[in-house]
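Lab meeting notes turned into a lecture example. A postdoc, R.K., suggested we walk through two folding results consecutively so the class can see how the record format repeats. The first protein's sequence and structure tokens come next.
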Amino acid sequence: MKYWFEDQLQSLLQSDDKDEFIRGIIKAVESLGFEYYAYGLRVSIPITNPKYEFYNNYPAAWKKVYQQEGYLEQDPTVRHGLRTIQPVVWEELMFDESKAFWEDAKSHGLSHGWAQSARLDASSIGMLTLARSGETLTSKELSSKTPYLLWLNQLVQMGFQRLLLPKLQHNYKASLTEKEIEVIKWCAEGKTSDEIGIILNTSKRTVNFHTANIIKKLNVSNKTAAAIRAVQLGFIS
């Protein structure tokens, strides 16, 4: 298993072709004893209208039902992944409030699974899910495979980040000067223009000039929105 994963590491990290990358994921998933993989990416720029990208090899019938029933909003594994990067194993208890979803999933051959999310940057989160229809995931199997599952998740997250994020974030690329970054950092702290001027040893007029430029560059309507966007784009860490 160790040597196989070393090969997978090189293969997945070096692939710049999305189809080739996905074929590598499927091969890895099957080698770990699963039938299906699913990857979802959410980019929350703008916050009120996040973008989603989904890739999986689920049965076509399940994909159709999932979309028609709006299961994305009900899926407890997705809710878990948005809250924490802690891995989760599918268990009956976690589907108590989503019984219709759970019964539909099992009827389409998705009975046992494992999932983990990862923060890709301040505005993006991705989640990898592995699933199968056959045997239950035992504690013994999890004990032996968890290091490889975690490793695979990291490879998949890194690969999709490289292949997808530039396209999804293209319209929100911006460049701020060092002085503008200083100003927006203090805006994010709730400081007024007068206060920022004192901190940076400059005039209120100059601070307002920089703030106006920041708002224009980040394509937002006010300095509060600019501070949020600056965090999302990594100008404020």
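The second example is placed directly after the first for contrast:
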Amino acid sequence: MKQKILIVDDEQDLCDILLLNLSVAGYDAVAVNSGEEALQQLRETAYDLVLLDVMMPGLSGFDVAERLQGRVPIIFLTALGTEDCVLQGFRLGADDYIAKPFSVKQVVARVKAVLARTTSVRHAGVVACEGLTMQTDTKTLSVDGIRVAFTKTEFLVLQLLMSQPGHVFSRQELIDHCWPSDVVVTDRTVDVNITRIRKKIRPYDRYLVTRQGFGYCFEGGTDL
């Protein structure tokens, strides 16, 4: 099933461009031109992500985000690019913030990254391999029945790797999926987090494999 994206912007030409490019990328996209219409759409249909302008007649994008209270991932697309506005967006629960003018290709890439990150977090249930068990709804991890303390980033990295066993993720892919877009992250930071994860999941660290020159993967079979 295609993931559904709601575009909210009072510039119809921009909506048309985003609709076309998101459709080509494989998404089911719908556009509305006001905050009021956005809230009505969200009451009637479940969306996986909202692309949200800030400056619109009537309800602003910030007003809409405040009413949604984190119930759906949001990427702000706005001409308001000052530091205060960006911080306001993230305080309201934004998953990303893109200032206009922007590259449509960049928007599509960041949509993919946010959806990959937030979808893995939202899916409730269990991801397990032998004695290694992640409770994805309560965000807890146990090794042979003993609860292990994890940082949010460590949890997201391990959950992403375990959710696609055998798939090799490059360091950049892990950064795009597991770190906020406004944080500068180096390859070394990824390696340090992987080292910490390995120590915490022993003896199952043997399944977290390095593919030299490519990245990391989880080679154990998992139950989702």
